[in-house]
């Protein structure tokens, strides 16, 4: 449940964010404002090779395909280029093909949630239209996306923005509307406007039958009220990067039969117990955990990953990416408890991704 990744706000980075053409260089730095884990980190950036990640110790995890249901791919690549000025990957396609090579990544759901809408969404989406393109440009990975406006940008939502979203929603690679919702932690847009824009987007998504990607942070009462007033109980919903109270999650799960809780690397952080608690509760339910695995990249590297990279002890990787999902699954399994293991969690999450987004 990241604050919106505003890395691509400047015109310089917007030009770079086409990112399909080689040898693009830029100097804009991503704005890390998340605050999920505020421990002081070393300023030393580990060598790029560590982003390729070590082999998984658990072979059963490696056997499970990765489906990342929420990633900000342009921002992830932008962060990579800003942190590794001499990096060896020059386009988004390079990044996906090479960083995810031999990592068993099957599909990603890319999230576009800025206002005004970044027109580069179409260039990426069109580059994944055919199986041949996906094989050649994406290394065989299925690229999907969702489109909406984040609550931080609600103040910039207007008819023109809405028309752009509706255009994107009609694209064959678009699988949902979002991320949208309420964020009362930062209040980057007035709360009344956040609610108005949230309802406006929900009404369109429900009318079109599109799955919902929801951002909610410290806004439990209003998020619950608005969802229950405007969304049918059987609509497909992804509450992304959940960190609010388990009681709130349970109320939503009980009311909405097709609602799923998004789990990111933030579950591994000592500053966040809510996500672990709701996972434990869901694991004991008759149907098992209604979860989706996601990265919300480029932020929130799972902390248990560092156990696999002792060579960089004391340093921190500057970005998260889709290939880190197995470490999220492994930690989630530990919180789910017996009989769940990491491979089981990935398998269940992948089944849920198909149920929500039709991604498999």
UniProtKB/TrEMBL annotation:
PANTHER family linked to this entry: DEOXYRIBONUCLEASE TATDN2-RELATED
One GO MF term attached to the UniProt entry: hydrolase activity, acting on ester bonds
The name this protein goes by in its record: Metallo-dependent hydrolase
Family annotation (InterPro entries): Metal_Hydrolase, TatD-like
Domain of life where this protein originates: Eukaryota
């Amino acid at each position: 449940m990241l604050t919106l990744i505003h890395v691509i706000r400047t015109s310089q980075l917007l030009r770079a964010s086409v990112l399909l053409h080689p040898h693009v260089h830029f100097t804009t730095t991503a704005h890390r404002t998340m605050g999920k884990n505020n421990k002081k980190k070393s300023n030393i950036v580990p060598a790029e090779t560590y982003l390729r990640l070590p082999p998984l110790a658990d072979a059963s995890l490696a056997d499970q395909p990765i489906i990342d249901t929420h990633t900000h791919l342009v921002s992830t690549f932008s962060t990579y280029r800003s942190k590794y000025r001499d990096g060896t990957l020059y386009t988004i396609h390079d990044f996906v093909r090479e960083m995810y090579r031999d990592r068993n990544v099957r599909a990603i759901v890319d999230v576009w949630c800025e206002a005004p809408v970044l027109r580069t969404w179409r260039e990426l989406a069109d580059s994944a239209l055919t199986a041949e393109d996906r094989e050649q440009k994406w290394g065989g990975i299925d690229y999907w996306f969702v489109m909406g406006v984040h609550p931080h940008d609600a103040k910039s939502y207007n008819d023109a923005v809405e028309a752009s979203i509706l255009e994107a929603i009609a694209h064959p690679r678009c699988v949902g509307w979002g991320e949208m919702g309420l964020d009362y932690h930062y209040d980057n847009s007035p709360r009344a406007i956040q609610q108005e824009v949230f309802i406006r987007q929900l009404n369109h998504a429900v009318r079109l039958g599109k799955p919902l990607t929801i951002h909610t942070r410290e806004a439990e009462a209003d998020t619950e009220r608005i969802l229950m007033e405007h969304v049918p109980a059987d609509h497909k919903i992804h509450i992304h990067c959940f960190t609010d109270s388990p009681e709130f999650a349970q109320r939503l799960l009980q009311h909405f039969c097709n609602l799923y809780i998004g789990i990111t690397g933030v579950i591994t952080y000592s500053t966040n117990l809510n996500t672990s608690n709701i996972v434990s509760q869901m694991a004991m339910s008759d149907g098992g955990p209604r979860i989706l695995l996601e990265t919300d990249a480029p932020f929130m590297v799972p902390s248990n990953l560092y156990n696999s990279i002792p060579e960089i002890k004391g340093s921190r990787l500057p970005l998260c990416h889709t290939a880190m999902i197995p470490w999220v699954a492994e930690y989630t399994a530990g919180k789910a408890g017996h009989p769940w293991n990491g491979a089981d969690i990935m398998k269940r999450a992948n089944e849920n991704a198909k149920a929500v987004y039709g991604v498999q």
